[in-house]
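Lab manual, section 2.4: Encoding a predicted structure.

Procedure: take the sequence of the chain (366 residues), apply the prediction step described in section 2.3, and record the output as structure tokens. A sample record is shown.
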Amino acid sequence: MLSLRDFWRRHRRKIFVATGVLGGGYVLYKLYDSQRRLADLERQHREHDEVIKAQMEAHFEKVQRIADATTLPHAIHYLSSRIEEELALSELTDKLMRGKKQPSSLSPSEKLELWDRLKILGFTKMVVSLWSVTILSLYIRVQVNILGRHLYIDTARGLGSSQLPEDDDFIDRDDQQKFLASVDFLANYGLQALISNIQAAATNVMKGKQLRDFFDTRVLHETVMQILEMFMSMGSSHQWVDFLMPADARLYKLATASGHENTTLSDVTKFDQLMEETRAVLLSAEYSSIVDISFKAAVDVLVDEMSVQSGGSLMTGMPLAKLVPRVIQMGPSLLDEPSKNRFIQVIRNIPEVQLFFTLLYANMST
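Recorded output:
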């Protein structure tokens, strides 16, 4: 009978091999099990991310619908009424009409002075309207993208994401509404300064142009672009941003707070953060490029619309005196409601603008 020691000596190689096989199998099993668990965790994480993404898209689309259906139409309508208040030209046109019916009521120098004022103010009103509709349509898209980012963060945190800072406050409905309502800052606070600056640019560009000078589509395009470029180059490179939004959101919040709100200058809220992020986008070089591209597209549409309305006469040219009434008529049509506004539709569909906002939203959501 073999002793245990003899058995070990005779079969130890087989035992080592068997043990190695069993041990290797156990290790492989553990590795497989770990990989399976990791795959399950990754699948759960992907599913969790998909839920967050779906919730975020729903929030974003809701804000976009509100902005398109309510915020932008209201802002455009309100701004249109404010421009009419600040740049009412009916008094000048009425005087010229009376002078036409009663030639003795106006001296030649008075008539020329009225026409000169009407020329300057007509182009001022048209460019103010063009600038405003272009900038507001872009500004509201920036707002929607920034709100979308914060709603994404709030949704992710609400679903228990561990990738986000815990000390970041949720954005409440009141701050959302205040943020979207800030689009009226231009109409309420920035419009007079905007008009004054554009009028100065228009005066500089138009001072050498006589009522008998012929304007065709090329000259009109060059004239409008010169006024825009001169205005945009006034002061600091981003002075125009102060016409659109407050330099300090806290001061604006104090000015617009209702009597029952307990607001102090030291309070820093989500609204302040939203406004700071918006200003940072507006001051970026990328956004400046998008603004330039949008202005050029808007001026192209303007000249095309005026050419169509002239029955093609603008293609061959007409005296400035005949163009001025058409310039005055273009102001209100530039501020048509968004669903009918060709300028807004064209700006939205510019490839560079679409790409800018796609990248802006993607960067903000990561």
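Check your result against the sample. The two ends are 75 Å apart (CA to CA).
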